[in-house]
Structures
1.
Amino acid sequence: MIDWLITIWLASALIFVVGEGLLAWQNGEAAIWDADDQWGSGAAYFILMILSPLVITYAVYVGGCHWPWVAWRSLTGRPVWLDESEDSVLVRLVKRRKKYDSSLRGVNINNWPQASFWGLPEDLIFDITKKHSTLIADGLSAQQIWLRIEAHRAYHSPGNIPPSPSLADYIKYRLEIEHPEYTAFGDELLQQQIKDCQAMIDHKTGEPWLVPAEALRKKLSQGEVEQLCSEAPKNMTINYREMQELKFRLSEGDEVWSYILPPTEGIALVRGGRSIASAVTTWSCA
């Protein structure tokens, strides 16, 4: 009887440790352990280990099929966090940096408004990784890709592109210019961050929604496009990040058109007579 109880406890403890690890990987930070409160979190971990048969029973009762599904998705390389919005990956990346960055200790990142993540090193990493993937899909050469991205990033601060850089090389070079403190956290962290960004981008890449040709209304001049990217008319509510992405992809021969497709109006980037990207400018509830 005692042997069976010990076996059940060991099995429960193992499931608890593995499950907690998967949950920490899923969320981008430890679920129980807190470096700012090692005694308290250590005691909590110890108690939960001792009570692991009850913890596992309760988790199965409450979670049902959810947690086995989360574990299965994680083990098969398709974690459920990939199903969230692209902006959510920034939360995950900052949580991972928290393990290396003493300035984030004790900070509840979950309470940050989304705009707080814009301009952070993680925003740079995701932005460059996404632009790199987009330009590869657009058929640009490696040299064209780096020159295009550098022209965009040089707005913040100019530099000299390393010769024949990899994606990681280029991101590290831009971090040294724009966020030099980040390089102290090491290459391992940077590689993990890029890997998560690429996983999110690959997961979201599919057949994009395209504006139908019949919805296009007016071809915009370069001056009108520049105005929309800098200052929107009073009757428009523009997502500037979408507009900047659209402008970034603009190549020779491309056209920018307005479109009307109720309940939205917006701007479409047209290449070869076909919409390849769009930005909503007006929503109508009518």
Note: Residues 2-83 form one domain.
2.
Amino acid sequence: MAENTSFITLEESLARKLYLDWRRRNAVEIVTRAARLGNAGEWSAAKRAVKELSFAATIEANFGFIEQTSLKSYLLGESFFTEGRVKDTLLARGDEPIPLGVTLAASTMLAGLEQSIRRVQEQAMLVLDEAEAEETQAAEEAAGGMVVLKAVIVGLASKLNTAVVSGGAAIDTAANLSTSRLASFGALSQAQQNGQGRFQISEVLDRRTCAVCRRMHGKIFSVAPALAQTEEALLTSNPMELASSNPWPSTSRQGITDLTSMTDEELTGKGWNKPPFHSGCRGILVPVGDVGASSIISFVPLATGLTGAEAAAAEIASATS
């Protein structure tokens, strides 16, 4: 039986390696330089430094590792449909070439991260703008305002670092989406080769599991449309285009109510028939029957007064009791 933990380990190892490399190769130096320039009152130079934040060097330096992790993710997905035996998968047997979606994974990840870095730059720029404005105001209000100036800009490096830390979240998201889609792609490819026309979704059920994934756990869908959708997603070079054409399910109360009432055909039409359902999704695809019937939650309408956390606790308790 497939285990979600193997997939999660792959994702976390990729995210951690890329984040530490980016901090060492780019982020720390940029934050230090921008803070030094800001503290010296050279705000234009500080802002130019922030614009040098980039994931490109990290992706280039770790291209081989990303390709290796992508291949492992695909093989892991295939192994979910060979009773966990990687040697019996299509790719390991040499019965298929490495799919294009796997070979393009590093380039696709870079495209997504370079879009994300713009938001990181904007956050850092906002910190600099606010510090510059405070310095200007202090200079105007205080006679001999240098003492005031030092008080205003103290902690600038810490504030910049906090802004730039969001780059780590972007890396986590990119790593998860890449490994998750590739694992689903491998599983679906192997299922199709096996002649298995359907698959089942297996989610980790704990207090972290979102309302969407709790509802998708144990659901059964057709292989063919899910395979075509996953391959299309992996070949999409513009992640923003994918986000607009195939948005995540809503986790609002109304969104969850709508999701619960949708038919399998409606879910498939929305592309909500396989993980990932959100960034950080821990779901995988397994053969029909691998998800124990006792773990599938039988949903009833949530009481209006329940908070999201209370609803999660009640539903997880129902599945694990």
Note: The longest strand covers residues 198-202.
3.
Amino acid sequence: MKKLIAIAAMVFMGVAIAPKAEAKINIQINIGSQPAWGPTGYDYAQFYYFPDYNFYYDISRGQYVILNHNTWVYTRTIPTAYRFNPYNAYKVVLNQNAPYRQNSVHIRNYGQYKGMGGRQTMIRDSRENKYYASKGHPMHSQWQKNNNNGRGKDYNKRNEGRNTVYNNGNGRTTGGVRR
């Protein structure tokens, strides 16, 4: 019985002094670096795949990845022979490294989207505030002015709530800090 109590005490002490488990959550958002012709609905995207043309766009590098003589190469521009317009092309978001290495899988899985260009809402046409961060969005300069205002990125956090009008429930409004 003494051994059982001793073992139980050791187990209890081991649990009591064990370091606490911590979970790290990594949330990535790259809306601001996605081009204006990118599809809405994705806070993060690594690559776009264009099923009509069978090539990719690397968002972090801002370059296309095309097949040239059986080799995938990075390029800033698409040859004119493709007659490519990213605003009229269907895009599949891929979050994987070097997706072109699995091109045959993408051809098979996304071939059904050929000819569906123009059916996606683009970042440029979205009215959601989060897409204003994209440099190609028509509201980007206004968004930038409102968020940076030339005073550093912490300015808005420090001044949050100032110069705001609140309804206090009795038909009257108050300005400044909420009461």
Note: DSSP finds four helices and seven strands in the chain.
4.
Amino acid sequence: MKWGPTLKQSPVAACALVLVGLLTAACDPADVKYTVEFQPAAPTTEPQPGTSELQLGATLFINRGFQWRDGLLHIPPGYNPSAAQPTPLLVWLHGGGGSARDAKALFPAADEFGVVVLAPDSRHNTWDGIDSPFGPDPRFLETALRYTAQRVNIDPERIVLGGLSDGASYALAIGRSNGELFKHIVAVAPWRLKPPGPIQGQPRILVAHGRDDNVYPEWHSRRFLAPGLSEAGYDVTYYAFDGPHKVTEAAADTIMRWITESRPGRSQPAAELDVSPGAAVPR
């Protein structure tokens, strides 16, 4: 009796079997990961100021095509590896469908304020947890952070997790579940994404949103998200700026100023959260 084509005879059937296996593996609870395990150590490599690719990535199948997904490390020209004072690190997460290159809008302000920027690519079109189980992106974040620590003297008290759009939502979710590591969070034009695990630490949070945003409305951050975080006990500063769904030059300057002025004991109490349309980071 003939039952039909074998896998060797039917490439479609073979591909379907492989796809089922991949989906099954992706749903394996053992593969789910949301913690980011990292401890800064003394640098072992002399860094070159400027922007460089991480060379840690892989070619991945995304949106019906193959893409190289890696990331960028930007070291300000004024960085002094022999200085006793460690430097702040901003880990910047791009929006959905974006890439690490989108972080270049932050580099001029980072140079001015002396902030190192690590911008990884997501492992898929956007960050896991948004359209897939948590796991691949936290693993790559760990690898990218270790790579950065080999080159930069990182201030462990100012490791900042930030992002735009999907990246902002992801930063608020992952950041609050890793609050002992990421003591500061920057969310520009975020939407909704719950922390994937228990809350850790009490990170300071800057929520920023463009008044002309036509993707996620600014009023959602001003009326609901920022006040909700404040009511949950977080030290929140809200900043509304003139602009669309992007990081403007003024917003980049405000982000870097907020990072460099962030110190224990200098926090703005949650009870004093200003959520008025013109609220900005105090100078």
Note: The two ends are 82 Å apart (CA to CA).
